[in-house]
Design brief:
By secondary structure, the protein is α/β, with parallel strands linked by helices. 58% of the residues lie in helices and 10% in strands. The chain is built from eleven helices and five strands. It has a five-stranded parallel sheet with strand order 2-3-4-1-5. Helix 9 links the parallel strand 3 and strand 4. The longest helix is centred in the first third of the chain and has 28 residues. The chain starts with a helix and ends with a helix.
């Protein structure tokens, strides 16, 4: 038994079945005590190995998504959300919009929960084995410009197209010139009608020309991003302002 166990450890290590190796002793003991069949023992070992790998893949997807903060659905105070958000959330949480390649545009004043909702949906997608990218719009535009200068723009575009979900946060906080607007439009258009994108913005659509000065380009961008999209108005009093008021009232 000693030599056989050593060989089992050796083969499990070589095959990178690390949970199989680490759990072998415990499960052998449990199997003897509970009179497991050989098949039951092997199945239990492989089940635990599979669970570990699934958990590792989830961690890798969450890390690759580049979320600035981990924000979950259960942390949302849904009764304080605007009616539009409360109505849309149950449907968005199914993640069917990702399978259907539909966009979500969350718009309204800062501090209401747009980024929180977008992040929570992204985390849930990662947990369901979907690939996600979180980026701010200014960060994305910088990345596009750098890739163009380095002549690696097509590589960036191919990678951008493949994500199951892309979250573009903070559209409207920083203005961009005509060239920047065109680069952003062309990049986001790669996913239009095929893959889902979540946009968070502090500006209503009729104010997008405040950050992109080309009216024709703005009209095209709004048309492309909002086609068959979920448009969710999230306006109201900022959570942070409410907390400040509560503290001041004490």
């Amino acid at each position: 038994m000693g030599l056989e166990k050593e060989l089992a450890y050796k083969y499990a290590t070589e095959l990178k079945l690390l949970t199989f190796r680490d759990e072998l002793d415990n499960l052998l003991t449990q199997g003897v005590e509970e009179n497991w069949s050989h098949l039951r023992l092997v199945t239990e070992l492989l089940h635990r190995e599979s669970e570990r790998r699934s958990e590792n893949r989830k961690r890798a997807r969450l890390k690759a998504a580049n979320f600035p903060q981990m924000k979950y659905m259960y942390e949302l105070i849904t009764e304080e959300l605007p009616q539009d958000a409360r109505t849309a959330l149950p449907e968005l949480e199914t993640l069917d919009f990702i399978k259907e390649g539909r966009n979500v545009v969350l718009y309204g004043n800062p501090g209401i929960g747009k980024t929180h909702i977008a992040t929570a949906l992204g985390i849930k997608a990662c947990e369901q084995e979907l690939t996600v990218l979180f980026t701010s719009v200014p960060q994305l535009l910088t990345q596009i410009r750098e890739a163009r200068s380095a002549k690696t723009l097509r590589t960036l575009q191919i990678r951008f197209e493949k994500y199951d979900l892309v979250i573009c946060d903070e559209f409207g906080y920083v203005s961009c010139d005509k060239e920047g607007g065109e680069l952003l439009f062309n990049h986001l258009s790669l996913r239009a009608g095929k893959k889902a994108t979540i946009i968070t913005t502090n500006l209503a659509f009729n104010r997008w020309n405040e950050i992109i000065k080309d009216k024709v380009l703005v009209a095209a961008m709004v048309d492309r991003l909002t086609h068959k999209a979920y448009l969710i108005n999230i306006s109201g009093q900022s959570y942070r302002l409410k907390e400040t008021q509560k503290m001041s009232a004490k």
